[in-house]
Amino acid sequence: MRAVLRSIKQFRSASRYRGDTISNGFPKRQHFWVNTSGRAAYSLHQYADIRRCYHPSYLFSRGLHADAARVANGEVDRAGPLVEYERRIASGELVDGDICQLGTLRELQRLYDQLVQNADACQLDRYAASKKAGRSRWLWSRFIPQSSYSPVKGLYLYGGVGTGKTMLMDLFFEQLPSSWRKKRIHFHDFMLNVHSHLQKHKGVADPLEVVAGEVSDESILLCLDEFMVTDVADALILNRLFRHLFCNGAVLVSTSNRAPDKLYEGGLQRDLFLPFIDILKERCVVHEIGSSIDYRKMTSAQQGFYFVGKNLSSLVNQKFFQLIGEYRAVPQEVEVVMGRTLRVPLGANGCAYFPFEELCDRPLGAADYFGLFKKFHTLALEGVPRLGLHNRTAAYRFVTLVDVMYENRARLLCTADATPIQLFEKIVTIADAQQISPRTSSRSRKNDDSDICVDNELGFAKDRTISRLTEMNSREYLEQHAAMLAQKQQSYEECSKNALHPQ
């Protein structure tokens, strides 16, 4: 393993580059490669001695690949995300990566090694851990106050959109032993579960302590994707919730587009949220992925099912009915949470149809969208408008909708007034607004003719949404979606066959 890390450090002196071309005396012919997840893109040179990423600032030496081969041949018996990454390079599943991703992998490998070494102290094994229920833990703590911080700090990864944060965290999660008390979940989904559990413990003096006990009993290692705080209800409970979780020994690994100090910036009653930032930085190593490359936009771009123009109702209807085939589309209802249901105007064969207004202009949220995509794998969305001050709330819901779709690897068929970038042109951060015109940074100008919406959270979130909309219409994403549907169909047929012919 030391040899692997040594070879990584050697990349700085591996070669010199001039402009976009490696200057090493070798021919300049190269091939471009995009991995099937659409989250990394690389260029391959004819000669294996020197390889580089598509971006000229990332260079790798041959020694890295030699050590990768040792991993693949079983000469290195260590495990973890960095070792698995090298194995995939050696086997051809992945081809190189950039220095920023490698720096993050080193942090994830460090965390993995510490967790393995301290598995007993962290009570990671579900079979060896205490079987007490959350409410029992809470009741016992009334008599004997106890605090048990984990000896291992977690990891908070943040950086620009499309830099591979989720892919790297998933790589880390996949290497963890199956017997560990662990969970990988989207932050939206996690908070929905928390609110649902709070409803069950209304009569308890401190329901957050009980919920934290239940969460940590189930999963002492939490991997939360897309940590983003926009809801005041979430902001007000996060500090107490995570204090209880960390006191129970929880270890947090999370990804975010925002640095900890920028979370919930400008939000209501943010002063009550600030203590959470302090404990987050105390219990997690904060690491920035400094890459400026959005790998999602380096997939094979194509129009996919995203159509731009006015009055395209007939087109979206035609495409929707092509997707459902011989099935008959009828209004349906899906269960959401706590007894609520969501009405689907038309649905059939895993495909749901909605006008934009019915899905984003109504008081709906992440819970409704998660409920929708538990039943449907494809959304036909008609009439996405340009977004600005006049429909800011709808813009927030649209961002959340795309996040949930991406998390569920759902397919989007939509008609819109503009391209993804143009849809969000009027939404800017305060800093961007000041560069455009000093007067537009004032929140009091509700009737500004330009319809500029100055909103820091939405201004940051739009980049992620544009990036995801781009990837969701790439060939790679749509092929993944088709493969996922084929696998589900195969599993369904096997289950049906076993039910008809039990052994």
Produce a short descriptive summary.
The protein is α/β, with parallel strands linked by helices.
What brief labels describe this structure?
alpha/beta; 503 residues; 18 helices; 5-stranded parallel sheet; disordered N terminus
Q: Mind explaining what this structure looks like?
A:
With 503 residues, the protein is an alpha/beta fold. Helices cover 43% and strands 18% of the residues. It contains 18 helices and 19 strands. The chain has helices at 2-9, 62-72, 81-91, 99-117, 134-143, 165-174, 187-200, 207-218, 232-247, 274-283, 313-324, 356-360, 366-375, 392-407, 420-423, 430-436, 456-472, 475-500; strands spanning 16-18, 21-23, 30-34, 41-45, 50-53, 59-61, 154-159, 182-186, 221-225, 251-256, 284-289, 306-308, 330-335, 341-348, 351-355, 378-384, 411-416, 427-428, 453-454. The strands form five sheets. It has a six-stranded mixed β-sheet with strand order 12-17-16-15-14-13. α3 packs across α4, α5 packs across α8 and α13 packs parallel to α14. The longest helix is centred in the last third of the chain and has 26 residues, at 475-500. The radius of gyration is 24 Å and the shape is globular. The relative contact order is 0.09. The model is unreliable at 1-72, 131-135 and 440-448 (pLDDT under 50).
List the helices and strands and how they pair.
Layout: H1 2-9, E1 16-18, E2 21-23, E3 30-34, E4 41-45, E5 50-53, E6 59-61, H2 62-72, H3 81-91, H4 99-117, H5 134-143, E7 154-159, H6 165-174, E8 182-186, H7 187-200, H8 207-218, E9 221-225, H9 232-247, E10 251-256, H10 274-283, E11 284-289, E12 306-308, H11 313-324, E13 330-335, E14 341-348, E15 351-355, H12 356-360, H13 366-375, E16 378-384, H14 392-407, E17 411-416, H15 420-423, E18 427-428, H16 430-436, E19 453-454, H17 456-472, H18 475-500
Parallel strand pairs: 7-10, 7-11, 8-9, 9-10, 12-17, 15-16, 16-17, 18-19
Antiparallel strand pairs: 1-2, 3-4, 4-5, 5-6, 13-14, 14-15
Helix pairs in contact: 1-2, 2-3, 3-4, 3-6, 4-6, 5-8, 8-9, 9-10, 13-14, 14-17
